[in-house]
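User: I'm writing a tutorial on reading structure tokens. Could you give me a worked example: one chain, its sequence, then its tokens, then a sentence or two explaining what the tokens reveal?
Assistant: Sure. Here is the example chain.
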Amino acid sequence: MDPPGEMCTVCVDPKSDPIGRSMSTRMAVAVAQRRSFVRGDAVQRVLAFGALISLFIVFSLASPNFLQFDNVVGILLATSVNGVLALGVTFVIITGGIDLSVGTVMTLASVMTGVFITVWHLPLPLGILAGLATGGLAGAVSGTVIARMHIPPFIATLGMLNIAKGLALVIAGLKPI
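And here are its predicted structure tokens:
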């Protein structure tokens, strides 16, 4: 038996995990796992950026018009809507939710903006604000259903997707606005 106050060399340290690793070993494992995650994440980012550069080079070689100013502006304008939608969905995903209705609520808000401006003859800024309010109302309804009624976000936003699609089709009368 060991003298009092000394630890047995074969006994498990009370600060160790159930496997018997010491605190320093657990910390070393955690640091190694964090480094491997950072390396994997960094490699993934570099590969994504490399793929973007590769596409840029291929399209530049395939068409002499690709790098013209008008084409670059057209590409940026075409992707700006997706970028704005992605910013909103980013916050939903960060909080662990999902929103399937983003595209159709955007369509409903666009249809309502067109209706407010062309049918109701509202001034342009007011029509745009009313369209944004339509999208905000749809988001508030989805959020309330999720938070108050405890419906899973997937189901609630799937329902809002169908409601927004139906409303947009009925209000637009199947005509482009």
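What the tokens reveal: The chain has five helices and no strands. The chain has a mean pLDDT of 85.
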